[in-house]
Amino acid sequence: MLKTIPALSILLALTALGVTLTVAQQPVGQLAFVTDRDGNAEVYVVNADGTGLKRLTQAPGDDLEPVWAPDGKALAFTSDRDGNQEIYLMVADGSGQKNITRNPAADCYPCWAPDGTRLAFASDRVDDSEVFACNRDGSGVTAISRSPAWDSLPQWSPAGDLIAFLTDRDQNQEIMVCRADGSGTANVTRHEAWDGDPRFSPDGRMLLFRSHRDGNINLYVAELAMARLWNLSQNQVWNEEGDWSPDGKKVVYASSPQGNREVVVADLATGGKANLSNHSANDWAPRWSPDGRAIAFLSDRSGETRLYVMNADGSGVREVGSGPVMDSPPAWRPPPPTKTGG
């Protein structure tokens, strides 16, 4: 008769011999995403391991563009439940939903200041689309872009001192950067081709964006202090939806080297690139987890758009949304602030 040896005894014996066992860790964190599985666009959350699926909004209109507050305790989102697009706030569990813009114009694309006290957003309340900012309760609205042209899609820098946004004031789409009060506006991209989707690096020194200047769509990096641009993706296919790793050393993005879209990671120091998703279906909209251990992305590998999570090296792919999702990037919930002091 075989004798069963307890697993703990085996682990202790191996440890005594100096053998280290590597145990696969499940991805941690929570994701907000948008789905129309209920007949209209609603905001849901789910844990990175696929558990804890919860619907946060239940309104007759469409609820879109969820973005977490920096402390992870609240979400801002766009909703047309009152007849026009407005910016709403809610607690992380879906409670306390409140219209903070309260304006007959269309307000959309909310973006948090890094200290969580203010939000930037786009609005056509002055006849054309402009970038505005307000306190988190909706008070203190100020114009940021102040231009007769179309300005939209603001992105706040990690230090809170700058705001990047898109504009067509030079007769094509460019990326502008200004101080948080709207002063000192500068054109970062300066090209007659289409440029878009700006994302600040974690240290705020660089700006990642996509550009049509090479005849296709490539991802570029702008080093702000040196006013220098360089091509990160460097190929002849479509490259888009870039996202920085938390340490700022890598960028993950969607690329189409074989015709379908794949999730690719690029190392900024070496220039090396690796196909992480490596699937015959389309994989896109990758977003790095706050701890850098996982990447969320969208894929149609099941026949419809669904939400997936994989380890940062491309392993351990799993579907986590438990159903169809809309074609908008998922949003990772930030970890709670680290407590300091005694």
Strand order of the largest sheet: 3-2-1-28
Q: Specify the structural class.
A: mainly beta
Residue ranges: pLDDT <50 for 5 or more in a row? 1-24
Strand content: 35-45%
Morphology: globular
Query: What series of H and E elements makes up the topology?
Result: HEEEEEEEEEEEEEEEEEEEEEEEEEEEE
Largest sheet: 4 strands, antiparallel
Give Rg in angstroms: 22 Å
Q: Which percent bin holds the helix content?
A: under 10%
Number of strands: 28
What is the tally of helical segments?
A: 1
Oligomerization category of the chains in this entry: single chain
What is the mean predicted local confidence, pLDDT?
91
Index terms:
globular; mainly beta; 4-stranded antiparallel beta sheet; 342 residues; single chain
How would you summarize what this structure contains?
The protein is mainly β and 342 residues long. The chain has 1 helix and 28 strands. The model is unreliable at 1-24 (pLDDT under 50).
Please, could you describe this protein's structure?
- The chain has one helix at 7-16, and strands at 30-35, 42-47, 54-55, 63-68, 74-79, 86-91, 98-99, 107-112, 118-126, 128-135, 142-143, 151-156, 162-167, 174-179, 186-187, 195-200, 206-211, 218-223, 228-231, 239-244, 250-255, 262-267, 273-275, 283-288, 294-299, 306-311, 318-319, 331-332.
- The chain has 342 residues and is mainly beta.
- A 4-stranded antiparallel sheet has the order 3-2-1-28, with no helix packed on it. Strands 4-5-6-7 form a 4-stranded antiparallel sheet, with no helix packed on it. It has a 4-stranded antiparallel sheet with strand order 8-9-10-11, with no helix packed on it.
- It is globular, with a radius of gyration of 22 Å.
- Mean pLDDT is 91; it is low at 1-24.
